[in-house]
């Protein structure tokens, strides 16, 4: 090729290259799938699920743990000093009023009682003799009165010793269950020493500590629900028996007693852990949305609201949660449409595509559990759903 021809060829290629490059680019764009862009050639629309904010019933409650206790617990103490002859009961024994729990051996007191009985017999015979002598005018009326006074004193001494000896039998002061046995046969005991504890397990209560911010919502006699760790899967009932008048100066908590009610409490025992749920507030006009619609953490919560087919982030303040829904105290109105699923991929003002999960019978089963496929129900943008 001559120099002239080479110059012509170079000029031709320099002139043709821009057209060849443009043609190749156009072919590449022509091969781009149409569904990779929005309906008008913009970014892909984000699929989302929506829900409508609506009014409903919400109950705010709090659950607190406490220990089950008997309403009545009585300590049984020794009234006499001496050795225990027989201890008749063990822990867990059911006793009735007046049942003997143990006996104290007091031989000195028994001897004193026998002497007082003899003195009483002598005083009684002395009075009888004096009264006969008075009839024969052998003794004076004053002497008869003196003997009668001696008889009364002897009778009083005998009665006192007899009553005192009755304390040698340690008896149950009420019906219930022996929860403590602190002595054994042969132990030496002294007056006022604790021997047993008897509890009335037919009536039980639990005591919990309630915050000063919540106690104002409670009322005497209010019904509550309880669960017990030792009896899983079962719910018990109770009522508020007492709200203490003062709060603890350190914790600012107020003790509240709950009386357990119902026949099912026979399965419960003192010492079990009970979790008591108190209803603090109940309203029928609470604004509710699904919990999944709320994004963010403590102090910064928001939802995406659909307005004119576009998502718009809105800050909200939440309240109580109930059955997968949360109360909205500020930021929304009844009828607002919020994004429930897909909100993490949404941006303010971007295109969205409203979808809903397939019904269970429409979903194709697979070897591993996965989220159900989605299908279009509407398109927030102007175009029709595909």
Task: Report on the architecture of this protein.
- It contains 3 helices and 21 strands.
- With 386 residues, the protein is α+β, with helices and mostly antiparallel strands.
- It folds into 4 domains: 110 residues, conserved putative lor/sdh protein from methanococcus maripaludis s2 fold, CATH 2.40.420; 95 residues, Efflux pump adaptor protein, beta barrel domain (Elongation Factor Tu (Ef-tu), domain 3, Beta Barrel); 50 residues, OB fold (Dihydrolipoamide Acetyltransferase, E2P), CATH 2.40.50.100; 60 residues, Helix hairpin bin (Helix Hairpins), CATH 1.10.287.
- The strands form 4 sheets. It has a 6-stranded antiparallel beta barrel.
- A hairpin with a 2-residue loop joins strand 10 and strand 11.
- The longest helix has 29 residues.
Write the layout of secondary structure elements.
Layout: H1 3-30, E1 46-52, E2 54-77, E3 82-87, E4 94-95, E5 100-105, H2 107-135, H3 141-166, E6 169-171, E7 176-181, E8 188-189, E9 194-211, E10 223-228, E11 231-243, E12 253-261, E13 273-290, E14 295-297, E15 300-307, E16 310-315, E17 317-322, E18 325-330, E19 337-341, E20 352-357, E21 374-379
Parallel strand pairs: 1-20
Antiparallel strand pairs: 1-19, 2-9, 2-13, 3-5, 3-8, 4-7, 5-6, 7-9, 9-12, 10-11, 10-13, 11-12, 13-18, 14-15, 15-16, 17-18, 20-21
Helix pairs in contact: 2-3
The largest sheet is:
6 strands, antiparallel, barrel
Number of helices: 3
The percentage helix is: 10-25%
Kindly report the CATH topology of the largest domain.
conserved putative lor/sdh protein from methanococcus maripaludis s2 fold
The strands making up the biggest β-sheet line up spatially as 2-9-12-11-10-13
- CATH-level-2 architecture of the largest domain: Beta Barrel
Average pLDDT, all residues: 79
| Shape by Cα distribution | rod-shaped
